[in-house]
Amino acid sequence: MELSRRHFLRTISALGGATLIGRRLPLLAQDHGGHSAATPSAITNLEPFVDALRIPPVLKPAKVKKVDTYSIVMQTGSVKCHRDLPPTNILGYNGIYPGPTIVAAKNRAVSIRQTNNLPMSHVTGENGEMVHMLPAVHLHGAAVAPESDGHPNDGIDFGGGTRDYHYPNQQRGCTLWYHDHTHGQTGERVLKGLAGMYILRDPSAEAPLKLPSGAREIPLIIQDRSFAADGQFIYTLDAATLEAGFQGDYILVNGVVQPFLEVETALYRFRILNGSNSRIYKLALSNGDSLIQIGTDGGLLQRPKEVASLEIAPSERVDVIIDFTRLPLGTKVVLRNLNDAGSTAQVMRFDVTKWVKEKKKVPQFLQAWDEIPEKNTVIHRDFTLQRQTINGSLTWTINSQAYNPANSPLATPELDSIEQWNFVNPTNHPHPMHLHLVQFQVININGIPQEASEFGWKDTVVVPPASELTILVKFSGYTGRYVFHCHNLEHEDFAMMGEFEVMPKT
């Protein structure tokens, strides 16, 4: 591991810890060549559907005036991921995997003090110096000031160092998630457990819809992992992984290998997050019933969509309703992954165990759609996503630059300006591109105009291989420096990430 990271550090100027890092990503529904084989587990043939789904605990805040305050400690812990596995050591928020869920309300601020009690880690710099890899925490999809955004250079000191993150929650209700954003080690630390769900509610928008709630509103964090013989997670940085991204050979939901969930004959709402490093899932139900999509990264769609399957890339979220009302007791329905075979083709199972009379219905209309006025676009920018050799090392780049925080920002939009960003992907790997600070709209793919409302509000979108994709963005809320990057975590780490700086109005 250290050799690989030292090799990586040579690809940029020695900046006392200002490193870049990235890895390889999976494919979309079709084979685009060069795709990564899963990192094999030493433990094979784990039986699916023997463990119940775990629901991460919801943290209770202390209420200080108009702010909900929390305290979270990043620390080691252990968890049983499968009946037949020994306990797995993890890095966790409050020592659990996944981390606890935060439930917030629109326009009510949240403040979280994060304390770093993780084991100290470092890499060796160009001149043999020890460079500590300080963790940062990013609330993915949130509109926040730059000092609370979890910029990879804003790390928290080891040995009990703290940082206060302030989230105003002045955006649409949606499913967010918080995760590690360590400069150069995001892939490894997220894989080892540093991720959790953050649900932002907008009661005024959702209450009239009477969507499934309580025990019938369930977060599902889907991740892939591989296990050593002693039950520990395997994380390998080799040439294939650095190119295509880590892929495990077992699917976990909320930290459990292919769990089951007992359900009633009712409607259920599932907030689904792809928390994997690089794997793209194509979700479908084994009985052929539709998934009813009601939301995406940035909140509710305009209207529900019944779909046979849903593809979801790393860091994307989909909000779906599954209708169990017509199923006989004893029915078992598998949530499948149509993009894979074998041990990664089954995600979890729903077991219908109790009859109830469901009174709720899926609403026909969800939320009004606000178009960003494309005619007000002031600048069009192109960003080319490539695999290149820099200083003798093969790495991932944006516009031929490997990430270096000392570089000038790749874009300097003005506050409240509207821009078109066109991502050009000449590679044979898909790239789920994520912009911090903003939610955006998809308006063009390969020269074909798109109906933005069909995609919903997004903060992450997959740019397919050998394709171009254009988004429309309004840079509102805050000025300052933010990052954008591929959310294949190994691509991000090695080093498909750039910065943009929102400038004051002139």
Search tags:
506 residues; mainly beta; Immunoglobulin-like; seven-stranded mixed sheet; six-stranded mixed sheet; 6 helices; 33 strands; disordered N terminus
Number of strands: 33
- From the N-terminal CA to the C-terminal CA, the straight-line distance is 47 Å
The computed structural class is: mainly beta
Strand residue content: 35-45%
Compute the average pLDDT. Answer: 92
Shape: globular
Q: So how many helices? A: 6
What is the name of the CATH superfamily of the largest domain? Cupredoxins -  blue copper proteins
Largest sheet: 7 strands, mixed
Number of domains: 3
Specify the CATH class of the largest domain.
Mainly Beta
CATH topological fold name of the largest domain: Immunoglobulin-like
Strand order of the largest sheet: 14-13-12-16-21-18-19
Radius of gyration: 22 Å
Report what the structure shows.
The protein is mostly beta strands and 506 residues long. It folds into three domains: 188 residues, Sandwich (Immunoglobulin-like), CATH 2.60.40; 146 residues, Sandwich (Immunoglobulin-like); 129 residues, Cupredoxins -  blue copper proteins (Immunoglobulin-like, Sandwich). The longest helix is centred in the first third of the chain and has 8 residues. Helices cover 7% and strands 40% of the residues. It is globular and about 60 Å long. β1 and β2 form a beta hairpin. The strands form seven sheets. Strands 14-13-12-16-21-18-19 form a seven-stranded mixed beta sheet. A six-stranded mixed beta sheet has the order 25-24-26-31-28-29.
